[in-house]
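lol ok so funny story. i was supposed to be doing the assay writeup but got distracted and ended up predicting the structure for this chain instead. priorities right. anyway since i did it might as well share w the group, maybe its usefull for someone
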Amino acid sequence: MEMMKSRLIGLLLLLVLAGSAYASPRYEGEFQQDLPATAELKDEHGSMQLYVNLDVEGEDGEENMYSFWIRDKQTGDVTWLFAANNAAEPRWNDMKDGNGVRVSKEEIAVGEVTNVRFLPWNSGKILLEGCPDGRNIWSYLYDVEDETAIQFPSTEGLQGMDVNARVLYLGSYRYHPEGGRYSVVRGYTPDGRFTGEERVLDEEEY
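and the output, tada:
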């Protein structure tokens, strides 16, 4: 009887410990030893590495679901940053005077990831782009420290950077009054402010 009671107590203790481990935060705000085995290395900056993991493969027309991770090569520390939310809507109406808008990480939608990289001058900033609506490229600049992002008012993604001036050039399409569309490239600071630089691409460039 005593042996059975001891075994029962041991089993209950194991269940409690397993439940506690499962309930504790595995990713957010915590380090863990290993990346998912399927995570892909996308960029490096100094000792920092940037990974993207396909968490759920979409079926029947659904978008894939991705999560984003960083790893410090010197310490081995791995941090989960966020998982893209493909149901999020862009905040076009909040983007006043051609400037971007700050959004939470729960508002980042990418669909298929088309571009992800560290800013060349700052490993704490990650440029992330994707096409969640099947038409437009949505562009975000994620801040690792404060866990928010700038969403840029652009629809065609990154076209270039001026590293010395720390300006990002992003493209958008517009429509001619007589029909057809054309592309415009605008300059933005990392905090989403439109610099006033604007260039219309000719047909050879578009």
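The first helix runs from residue 2 to 23. The CA atoms of residues 100 and 110 lie 17 Å apart.
back to the writeup now i swear
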